[in-house]
Design a protein that fits this description.
Enoyl-CoA_hydra/iso, Enoyl-CoA hydratase, Lyase 2-enoyl-coa Hydratase, Chain  A, domain 2, 274 residues, ClpP/crotonase-like_dom_sf, globular, 10 strands, catalytic activity, seven-stranded mixed β-sheet
Length: 274
């Protein structure tokens, strides 16, 4: 395991192991709130990923009992941090600060896995929704809780939520600010698996490492193809698929993968004869 070359900051720990970049939210005193320091640390680390050929998957997790509790309510009351200044200044700060995370996560060429323990509420819920695959512990809770504070999702979470659970359910979760547990989140497709609190990191790291073992160029293309296919016509998807497949069929990754497959197949046949 190696530390990521550019320090992500004290509020986010980072390391690379077997192709997996692990980013750990590490500000337990405020529930990993998305303040300016956390936002800059996380977005700064994410913005470097696409240029790193030793990173094949990103794992986002927390070091404390909560994943991310959203915005800091005390800062909201005092008008400090992200909430200070005029309407124009706050809007500009949101676009330049919090939205850096949204843009960086949605632009990742490599897959992202999120391990959610404890609260993922408000902007913390949105942060989890921005990742490609989410796992949760039995103690996880999710909420689009903005209306409780007279707010809306300010970092684009509504875009991701509607695409995951559908328009009607996204509207229900938004308008009620309902808290849902891990099993309810799984039934809605928000998380793909629920495990015990002790097993969460093990399961999430195992999944991220399995993903990262794939041929890197094909891995990035596979993610892009699925992502783009959700919003373009079939004809466009077919054009993309043909171009990507042609590149991969003529590349060394495919030839090496075929060679490994044939060797493994031959070895399996020998084992069955014994």
């Amino acid at each position: 395991m190696s530390a990521y070359p550019n320090d992500a900051g004290s509020s986010v720990e980072s390391s690379v192991d077997e192709g997996v970049l692990t980013l750990t939210l590490d500000s337990p005193s405020d529930g990993n709130a998305l303040n300016i320091a956390m936002t800059e640390a996380l977005s700064g680390a994410l913005e470097q990923v696409n240029d790193r050929r030793d990173v094949h998957c990103v794992l986002l997790r927390s070091s404390s009992r909560h994943f991310c509790t959203g915005g800091n309510v005390k800062d909201m009351q005092s008008g400090s941090d992200l909430m200070s200044g005029s309407v124009e200044e706050v809007r500009d700060r949101l676009l330049r600060s919090l939205h850096r995370i949204t843009r960086a996560l949605s632009a990742l060429d490599v897959p992202s896995v999120c391990a959610v323990n404890g609260a993922a509420v408000g902007a913390g819920c949105d942060l989890a929704l921005m990742c490609d695959i989410r796992l949760a512990s039995t103690k996880a809770v999710f909420a689009e809780s903005f209306l409780r504070l007279g707010l809306v999702s300010g970092i684009g979470g509504s875009w991701f939520l509607a695409r995951i659970v559908g328009y009607a359910k996204a509207l229900e979760l938004t308008l009620t600010s309902e808290f849902i547990d891990a099993e309810a989140a799984r039934s809605l497709g928000i998380v793909s698996k629920v495990v015990s609190e002790d097993a969460l990191d093990i399961e999430a790291r195992s999944l991220a490492k399995r993903i990262a073992q794939n041929p890197p160029t094909a891995l990035r293309m596979a993610k892009r193809l699925v992502r783009e296919a959700a919003d373009v016509p079939l004809s466009t998807t077919l054009d993309m698929a043909a171009s990507m497949q042609a590149i991969l069929l003529c590349g060394h990754e495919h030839k090496e993968a075929v060679g490994r497959f044939l060797v493994e197949q031959q070895a399996a046949k020998k084992r069955t004869r014994i």
